[in-house]
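Re: duplicated header lines in exported structure tokens

Our pipeline writes sequence and tokens for each protein into one text file. With two proteins the header for the second block appears twice in some exports. Here is an export where it did not happen, for reference. First protein block:
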Amino acid sequence: MHRIFLLLLLLSGSLVARAQSDSYLQEVVSRLENSKKSTLLMAQAMPENQYGYKPVADEMSFRAQLLHMSQNVNWLTSSHLTTQQSPFTESNLKDTGQSKAVIEQLINQAFDYAIESVRVFDAGRLDEKVTFFAGPLSKRQIMNLVNDHQAHHRGQLVVYLRMNGVKPPAYVGW
């Protein structure tokens, strides 16, 4: 009887942990969807003739910030979260003076790739370690890093917009 109770206890704990991991992945998808929406709203808010704007010479331009964000989402996803082929080649995400419409398309593609990768991600692999230049990280930490990096650069975009007299879009995240 004790063995059956112990087995049931272990099984229920495993099911709870799995449900929590699945819930976490749903939260990551939601954050990525909000991040995509927020990034696109900022991209749309800046007039196209200001996409080359940078506040000082050693900063990235508005366009370069958006491309860097898309590149980072793509890199972290393709390198650490999925084996599905990236929608980008190395040259797709370099600043070549792309139009506003092209930038918005690239943002959509990068986020859609990450969102789909997380949707099909095996929750049992969240704690799996990956090699990262700053030291080993879990796949869960990589997912958090995608969000943190985006928040950092969107904060910079708010400043770029304000410096050009453009009211930033409202916060997206609730």
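Second protein block, exported in the same file:
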Amino acid sequence: MNLEITTPDKTIFEGEVSLVQLPGIDGSFELLNNHAPMISALKKGKIKIKDKGNDIRFFEINGGIIEVLKNKVLVLAE
């Protein structure tokens, strides 16, 4: 799936990933390939991603919104 993490200043990540773990308002959740469409609020925490090569990366955010649609994940982060 394609992931884009954007802040008000710039895009901090864009690329293909196999897993995304996010800090949701009601708790952490994960997205895998072909996830159902959704929109959710995010709280302060870490976004964990696993790319196609199984490398794991983390991004610290102060909250935001996520949209999942047609195998594209858009994170608007603070």
